[in-house]
Amino acid sequence: ELDVYIKSDDFTKGIALIPQIQGELERLEKHVSPVHELQFSFSFARLLHANKKYKESLRWINKLLNNPNKELRADIYCCARMLQIIIYYETKDWNILPYAIINTTRYLKSTKKLYRAETALLAEMRKLEDVEKSKELQQLKKLKTAFEEIFTDNLEKNLLDNFDFSSWVNDKIK
Questions:
Q1: CB 114 within 8 A of CB 108
Q2: 69, 85 contact by CB (below 8 A)
């Protein structure tokens, strides 16, 4: 049900379900698979991020990133790292952002599964942390153009199943 709300951009209804789902997850803790735990954590983070509840979203991202079973869903783990960087950018946390970019770059290179979209996002985020406010929009437009070209590739489109990077950058440009 959460995914339906995420895909239909009905984030408020999705967020309303979080406490109920969280209660069920706690109640059924021993019966919830580690994969489902990762999926719920990421869905919660996505919903909260979409509603600009960055600190709450970051809490779920960090829970996911600290999960010892992250190899079960490497795709979610990678997207969680990217979302973490986006949140640091959104909150203007310039002290942590450079380290998150470096760590994420290292991690993605070590997995040998670096998507071009991830490379583009990391490169532009590196530039955005140092760019003047007046040139920020220009950098975001470059990222949008890069995404438009990159996401014509079906393999790259798989990344959008976990987080719609194109929609995020489009919203930032508006």
A1: yes
A2: no
Distance CA 171, CA 7 (A): 16
Q: Which amino acid is at 13?
A: K
Whole-model pTM: value is: 0.86
> 127 exposed, middle or buried (CB, 10 Å; 0-12, 13-18, 19+)?
middle
Distance CA 122, CA 112 (A): 16
Q: Which residues of 2-22 are buried (b: 16+ CB within 10 A; e: fewer)?
A: beebbeeeebeebbeebeeee
97-123 tens-digit pLDDT: 999 999 999 988 888 777 888 888 898
Is residue 117 a contact partner of residue 123, using CB atoms and an 8 Å limit?
no
